[in-house]
């Protein structure tokens, strides 16, 4: 017989067990008693944040700030709101609309919880960097904005990256808030001067949020940390928005001329499908969304709140700086500099606008006391006196803004480079200067003085050079042979000609070119070019002497770092081997080069058909040291050379070859200008195949050569400095003797 069991008797027992289990669960997993209240409850309980808690409720953030989380709140107290009401002519917190409430609350709210002593530290990709931060990302962002662009209504969103890839979907472009702490200021060598430069009517307190003071720091909450502040901070505009607000003032605008140049030439509005999808999901509206895009050639996008975003938090440690000239000075600059050779501003090449704006951009936060240690995006020092040239200064959400009463005196606009750069008649020379050749950087350096012999586009074209934009390459057609080369060889040929047209003149050596004559080395001090000659407004390179066509100077343009001379011909290099030039010198009636040439022409290292000397290559630098006839006779007497200029004995043939080779310097062109001194390699090798050397001594007006026995050969000035391909040929009063070491 089965016994019956009354299951109803189990119900009280189950209820008892369940009650015990819940008590244990709550005790284990429940909120610990020692935890502080969440941010909202903390603010509410303190009693002096009534206005702020009212805004938190109005903004819909009460629930968020009452739950678990990890926030920093810069909370304005009630006294701060009383001043805010007065400044904005409102009676109480009820008059603040929901949108403004959300702005105030979200801009006071920073992601992650930071004590005062942590705020000066940067959350780098490899860990905390102590005392290297003065900004934090807030919960506020502008999002999608309705604007009228060129008369058309559009939904606009700002760039959230710099460069070509300027918009990343899912990044809201949150605004940053800046603060100023004792730890950061001491680490960076800053002081209250830097704070008061931006906020002259505020007091630096060692812990300021913008221009407000932190009256109580490190109020610990369950879901973060509260810092009480004495001012209501509304979201700051970014640099782009500040300029837009200024332009909206119409005749009261200070910076609209600069902004118009940027907006008309370096800004575009580009449809973005990802942003359009996000906008639809957020609003249910089907409008197309356009990203306001700044040209990728700029150092940064003034509407990007994210700084560089090379690491996620790099905006904590740095920010942008833009210095903007006020309208009057900028308009003067446009008239006198930009439009000197252009009919209107829209005719200028885009790279001019890029350079102009980059000259006023710094990809760092430029602190006023440290301004001299920063360079602009062109690598130039900032040429502003921060005591007298700055008329307005602002800390904005993505950087510092300085309104200035002058235009940056950029190298590009006040140098010999400018003569080509800002004149459409010289665009071909400018193209080559700008293509990474290094010429642009060299001749635009206003700290060094140069002369530029500048050929026009028409002249370059007439000489057979052109630029093929379809294939992005240079093309050269020889006007005589009609043979065409393109790409690298064509560019190299024009580069050599234009580099030969640049002369470093630290002492104004060519200032009086119309009434003087002489020889001078082209190129830069660190990267020498070839030697050229001038005489009474005419200039010659080796090729001009070869072809018999001088370069005439037709005009000039005086710039801050020298003079540009406009010319009617190119400074050409010679296609002729150097041996032919020695031949011409040696065959002249009564020539002092004749004995040396007679030995050369009969030697085994000379090719009479081509004029080539064995081991001497066209396009390479050389110095030819030619003993005069008397010195050559002495070499014969001393047994250094055979008596016959056409020896038949092998030993004598070798003597001649070695003698000539020892009088040719390799990879170096020496003249009487003091630029080349020291010990240099010759063409001769010793019996072990090792290099041999000669010492060059030179000062302005003197030139001599010494062998290892200190035998000296002095140049004979009147018959020296003869031009050949990348070479000079000198007549000297002695021969040099090689001694095997």
Describe this structure in words.
The chain is of the alpha+beta class and 741 residues long. It folds into 4 domains: 39-141 and 176-234, FAS1 domain (Roll), CATH 2.30.180.10; 256-405, FAS1 domain; 414-567, FAS1 domain, CATH 2.30.180; 578-732, Roll (FAS1 domain), CATH 2.30.180. Helix content is 29%, strand content 25%. It has a 7-stranded mixed sheet. A hairpin with a 4-residue loop joins strand 28 and strand 29 (612-613). Helix 3 (50-59) packs across helix 5 and helix 10 (256-266) packs across helix 13 (350-358). Mean pLDDT is 95; it is low at 1-18. It holds the Pfam family Fasciclin. Keywords: Signal. Residues 1-24 form the signal peptide.
Span between N and C termini? 128 Å
Strand arrangement, major sheet: 2-1-11-10-9-8-5
Radius of gyration, Cα only, in angstroms? 38 Å
Secondary-structure arrangement, i.e. CATH architecture of the largest domain: Roll
Number of domains: 4
Number of strands: 37
- Residues in helix, %: 25-40%
The mean pLDDT is: 95
The largest β sheet comes out as: 7 strands, mixed
CATH superfamily of the largest domain: FAS1 domain
Count of helix runs: 23
CATH topology of the largest domain: FAS1 domain
CATH structural class of the largest domain: Mainly Beta
- Structural class per helix/strand content? alpha+beta
Q: Runs with pLDDT <50, length 5+?
A: 1-18
Residues in β-strands, percent: 25-35%
What coarse outline follows from CA principal-axis ratios? elongated
């Amino acid at each position: 017989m089965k016994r019956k069991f009354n299951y109803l008797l189990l119900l009280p027992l189950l209820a008892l067990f369940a009650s015990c289990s819940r008590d244990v669960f709550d005790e284990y997993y429940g909120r610990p008693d020692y935890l502080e209240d969440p941010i909202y409850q903390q603010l509410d309980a303190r009693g002096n944040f009534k206005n702020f808690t009212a805004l938190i409720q109005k903004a819909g953030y009460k629930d968020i700030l009452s739950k678990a989380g990890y926030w920093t709140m810069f909370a304005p107290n009630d006294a701060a709101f009383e001043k805010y009401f007065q400044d904005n002519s409102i009676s109480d917190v009820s008059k603040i609309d929901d949108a403004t409430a959300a702005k105030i609350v979200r801009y006071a709210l920073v992601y992650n919880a930071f004590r005062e002593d942590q705020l000066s530290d940067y959350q780098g990709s490899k860990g905390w960097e102590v005392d290297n931060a003065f900004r934090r990302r807030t919960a506020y962002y502008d999002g999608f904005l309705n604007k009228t662009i060129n008369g058309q209504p559009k939904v606009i969103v700002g760039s959230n990256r710099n460069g070509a890839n300027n918009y990343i979907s899912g990044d809201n472009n949150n605004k940053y808030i800046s603060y100023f702490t004792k730890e950061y200021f001491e680490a960076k060598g800053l002081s209250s001067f830097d704070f008061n430069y931006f906020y002259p009517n505020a007091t630096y307190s060692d812990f300021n949020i913008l221009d407000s003071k932190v009256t109580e720091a490190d109020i610990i909450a369950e879901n973060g940390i509260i810092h009480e502040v004495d001012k209501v901070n509304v979201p700051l505009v970014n640099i782009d928005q500040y300029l837009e607000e200024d332009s909206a003032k119409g005749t009261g605008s200070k910076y609209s001329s600069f902004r118009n140049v940027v907006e008309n030439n370096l800004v575009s509005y580009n449809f973005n499908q990802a942003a359009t999808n996000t906008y639809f999901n957020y609003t249910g509206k089907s409008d197309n969304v356009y990203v306001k895009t700044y040209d990728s050639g700029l150092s940064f996008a003034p509407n990007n709140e994210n700084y560089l975003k090379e690491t996620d938090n790099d905006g904590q440690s740095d920010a942008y700086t833009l210095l903007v000239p006020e309208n009057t000075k900028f308009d003067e600059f446009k008239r006198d500099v930009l439009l000197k050779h252009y009919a209107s501003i829209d005719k200028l090449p885009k790279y001019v606008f890029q350079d102009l704006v980059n000259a006023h951009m710094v990809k760092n936060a430029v602190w006023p006391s440290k301004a001299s240690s920063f360079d602009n995006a062109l690598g130039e020092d900032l040429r502003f006196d921060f005591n007298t040239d700055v008329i307005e200064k602002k800390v904005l959400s993505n950087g510092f803004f300085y309104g200035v009463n002058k235009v940056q005196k950029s190298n590009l606009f006040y140098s010999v480079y400018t003569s080509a750069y800002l004149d459409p008649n010289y665009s071909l020379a400018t193209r080559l200067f700008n293509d990474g050749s290094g010429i642009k950087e060299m001749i635009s350096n206003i700290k060094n003085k140069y002369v530029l012999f500048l050929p026009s586009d028409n002249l370059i074209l007439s000489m057979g050079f052109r630029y093929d934009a379809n294939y992005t390459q240079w093309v050269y057609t020889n006007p005589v042979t009609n043979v065409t080369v393109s790409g690298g060889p064509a560019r190299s040929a024009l580069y050599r000609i234009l580099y030969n047209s640049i002369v470093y003149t630290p002492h104004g050596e060519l200032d009086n070119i119309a009434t003087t004559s002489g020889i001078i080395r082209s190129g830069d001090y660190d990267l020498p070019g070839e030697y050229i000659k001038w005489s009474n407004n005419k200039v010659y390179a080796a090729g001009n002497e070869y072809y018999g066509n001088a370069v005439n100077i037709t005009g000039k343009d005086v710039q801050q770092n020298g003079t540009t001379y406009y010319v009617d011909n190119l400074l050409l290099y010679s296609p002729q081997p150097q041996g032919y030039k020695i031949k011409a010198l040696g065959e002249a009636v009564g020539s002092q080069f004749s004995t040396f040439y007679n030995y050369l022409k009969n030697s085994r290292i000379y090719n009479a058909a081509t004029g080539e000397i064995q081991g001497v290559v066209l396009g390479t630098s050389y110095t030819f040291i030619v003993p005069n006839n008397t010195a050559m006779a002495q070499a014969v007497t001393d047994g250094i050379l055979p008596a016959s200029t056409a020896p038949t004995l092998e030993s004598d043939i070798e003597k001649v070859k070695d003698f000539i080779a020892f009088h040719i310097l390799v990879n170096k062109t020496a003249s009487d200008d003091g630029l080349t001194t020291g010990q240099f390699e010759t063409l001769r090798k010793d019996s072990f195949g090792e290099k041999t050397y000669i010492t060059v001594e030179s000062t302005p007006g003197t030139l001599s050569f010494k062998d290892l026995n200190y035998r000296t050969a002095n140049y004979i000035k009147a018959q020296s400095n003869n031009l050949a391909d990348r070479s000079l040929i000198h007549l000297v009063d002695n021969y040099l003797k090689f001694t095997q070491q």
